[in-house]
Amino acid sequence: MAAVDKEKLPVHIGFIMDGNGRWAQKRGMPRKMGHREGARTFRKIAKYCKKIGIKYVTFYAFSTENWKRPEDEVKELMRLFNEYLDEVQDYAKENTRLVFLGDKSAFGKQMAERMTELEKSSSGFDGMTLMLAMNYGGRDDILHAVRGIADMAAKKEIKLSDIDESLVSSMLYTKGMPDADLIIRPSGEKRISNFLLWQSAYAEFYFTDTLWPDFTEKELDAALNDFAARSRRFGGV
Ligand code: IPE
Ligand code: IPE
Ligand code: MG
Questions:
Q1: How far, CA to CA in Å, does 85 sit from each of 75, 99, 138?
Q2: Which of 45, 54, 124, 218: CA 20 to 30 A from 211?
Q3: What is the per-residue pLDDT across 21-76, written as a single tens digit (0 to 9) for each?
Q4: Residue 162 in domain
Q5: Pocket test for ligand 2, best of 31, 35, 66 (most atoms within 8 A of CB)
Q6: What span, in angstroms and rounded, lies between the C-alpha atoms of 152 and 228?
């Protein structure tokens, strides 16, 4: 890697994989071709993160709002996710732990079971943790945690005074993971679109006009250099 200070690497990077549709449209191709190309970029960038020593990486692949898209686009995305599942199995062999963020049940029993199985079989790996946010929404994440906490309170397993930030964090889909340090959003949009809301409280943001299928290792280096030069104060001085 070009000149990025290893000491100043983010522990947890989040990628909002956006711009696939526009990438395809610019080429006069159907949007689904953009998703296929975007899946290639996902593979390339996941491998690169591992190579340079990033410990946690989250890819936003499908939001709780993306179900609104035309049926054939959603269908193609589901087909690609099944391919991801075939492949991420290989990542597990490379000492990578896999975690899915979001309610798996929306994908149907068979796929949800495969996802759970991959999480279980890779749970002992500690080279890198790869999180795939699928049917994920930051609000849904918080809501799901609130329901869990309310349930514990109703069963008198916890008192009101036990409810603190660490309890909420431990009830999120990202349970046990550090908060995001750096969130990268390609495609020119400058918004969070319901990605890691709680976990991005003190994240640094990096926006680029590059569309996700065109995103490269070199551009990630640039984002990492930018991150390394920032002063993070967390409310202090
Ligand atoms: C991101 O690319 C992939 C998903 C949201 C599933 P988009 O499909 O949102 O691409 P644009 O934003 O329309 O270009
Ligand atoms: C965010 O992209 C979700 C993913 C990349 C999975 P969207 O394309 O859905 O976000 P908006 O609609 O531009 O905010
Ligand atoms: Mg988009």
A1: 16, 11, 23
A2: 54
A3: 999 999 999 999 999 999 999 999 999 999 999 999 999 999 999 999 999 999 99
A4: no
A5: 66
A6: 41
Cα end-to-end span (Å), the chain: 31
- For a ligand 2 pocket test, name from 193, 194, 209 the mutation site with the most ligand atoms within 8 angstroms of its C-beta: 193
Atom of ligand 2 nearest to the CA of 66: 9
Q: Is residue 167 part of a domain?
A: no
Q: Which two tokens stand for residue 42?
A: 């996902």
Domain of 89, CATH number, reads 3.40.1180.10
Helix (H, G, I), strand (E, B) or coil at 187: coil
Distance 125 CA to ligand 3 centre (A): 32
If we measure between CA atoms, which residue out of 218, 230, 232 comes closest to residue 52?
218
Q: Report the domain count for the chain.
A: 1
Q: Angle at Cα 55 formed by Cα 52 and Cα 58, nearest 5°?
A: 105
Atom of ligand 1 nearest to the CA of 61: 6
Q: Which domain holds residue 27?
A: 9-137+179-226
207 DSSP β-pair partners: 185
Please report whether residue 125 resides in a domain.
Answer: yes
pTM: 0.97
The catalytic site residues sit at 18, 66
Q: Could you tell me if residue 174 is inside a domain?
A: no
Q: 71-110 pLDDT, tens per residue?
A: 999 999 999 999 989 887 777 678 999 999 999 999 999 9
